[in-house]
Amino acid sequence: MSDFSIGELQKLHDVACTVARLAGNYMREDQLRRRQTPLATREKLNSVDLVTAADETVEKMIKDSILKEYPDHAFIGEESYSAGEEKRFLLKDGPTWIIDPIDGTVNMVHMFPMTAISIGFCLKSIPTVGVVFAPFLGGQGTMYSAIHHPEGGAWLSELGPDGPTTPLPLTSPPPPLPLDAPKGCLFFGEYGKDRRDHPQSNLTKKAANFVNMATEIGGRGGKGGMVHGIRSLGSSTMDMVYVASGQGDIMFEAGCWEWDVCAGIAILLQTGGIVVDSNPPLNLQDSDPIPMANLGGRRYLAIRGCSEDSTGRSPRMQQEALVREVWKRTERLDYQRPV
Amino acid sequence: MSDFSIGELQKLHDVACTVARLAGNYMREDQLRRRQTPLATREKLNSVDLVTAADETVEKMIKDSILKEYPDHAFIGEESYSAGEEKRFLLKDGPTWIIDPIDGTVNMVHMFPMTAISIGFCLKSIPTVGVVFAPFLGGQGTMYSAIHHPEGGAWLSELGPDGPTTPLPLTSPPPPLPLDAPKGCLFFGEYGKDRRDHPQSNLTKKAANFVNMATEIGGRGGKGGMVHGIRSLGSSTMDMVYVASGQGDIMFEAGCWEWDVCAGIAILLQTGGIVVDSNPPLNLQDSDPIPMANLGGRRYLAIRGCSEDSTGRSPRMQQEALVREVWKRTERLDYQRPV
Fold this sequence. Notes:
The structure is a homodimer of 339-residue chains. Chain A has 339 residues and is an alpha+beta fold. Chain A is 36% helix and 19% strand.
């Protein structure tokens, strides 16, 4: 990230915030139209085509605004990707925006407010600026954002563009992880869109993972994790920002994409969290350091930031220990990129 | 409800809204203290005792305010109940307030914002006024409320006590349920606090229910429901108000209590929703009308309000058909009242 000064990153962040609010306003107006439109049209608006039209409109709005300001930057958007021929992981080292115009589209259709605009910016493949705006969460929407840089920061904004912001993580310094984690942790995960039914399907394995994490200690053949709770919001973007903010401890999700998590990861990294592959890397020894998740790998296990604990373990030691505890209790999931 | 005029109910509603915001302000101040307190104390604040102390403080605040205004009314609160000797279902026909000072206590400890104050008021055992205030959801908190009465109404307030309100359900008239429901529905349910591990435990059965609802049509021996999504928020109060508002379709929860759902049910009834037992009543025939849930029965299956569908089915016909489809896909749960 050495090529960009903190001043330049601040400007990038502010541009992304402005664009996210612009897109959020469009989404709010769109929902108001849907609330007032006669039923026949509303039903039509619930169909996949028209929702996709809304996604495409928002993505174009974001893309146009950003490229007008930064015409030399690369741009990866969910809708452009889905429509294009190129299905490989496209991220290069140069300045690259990675956007999900509407994460939680199913929620948006149902007007459940866990829907977010996710705008991430990467340098050398590292999420460096992240803005997540949930336009329906609270009367003025809820925005999480960060600049991942030694002189950066992370913020929660719930009172409009001119309102005060709250620094993240919410508790600073963040508390240690529970000594017997995952016991006592708040765990976020999703069932996802792969609904095939067989004993080795992703749905079957995800459900088993959730039950393992929830079951009493000693249960499930020793896999019981007795977490405080399992939360499924229907938006991996929101799952990630809650963990990044210290409003949860563990985010475990496979099947989503880099645009779902890029912005959230920038916030997570700035608040001291880590994100690794939700499948344990093959041949990883107990003493090996755990590598960061591949941004395009479709499998993410995030742990919130924390402080040294009462036994003297560093944040990283606690986080890696918790990652290994989660891996013990979860089955490997099978998500590939189309080729 | 004939004893109370709409004017009297309006006053009750306004008193409950004011009290809920008062309690919400206390909870926000309490969270600010926790964010700024050194770690040792914050860890202590995470322990069960101190969280209970917060619950008790909020319940007393609500009880004192309400009984000052209505000294002759009965009052059932979660904390008084838990502390008392009397474990039977206490609801009588007279005017009775049923309160959960803090629903989603685990979320509150983790600062995940799905936490709500739930204030319900019953006449002749029917939830008649309901106020649910989520003080951490959005910068000014999010309030759902209703007066269940022909001249009543239901409202969403996200912009503070003096801000505008949005009538509920959000889409009016509400759309029909999907013709092939539960396919296409948004389903809310919780794993709950019973984490025992055996093949017939509530946790095992709840997890199986969720997978049945999520699996593709034809899967799980014909039980696959292919809902749009499974949501677990960690607050049965919030699950209920999202369905009441038309921001979800189905709420399926067992193990919670009347104070968790009473206020939400008042909103649900006013917006045209229904709530029945999540276990099918024994000996109920296919042609029998489905009775309303017993408020003290600890098992609730709620379906949102809807309009006549394209095949001419009334809202009630669609709702009862969906209830039977959910019953087919879910196992009976075992929750009792302590005696």
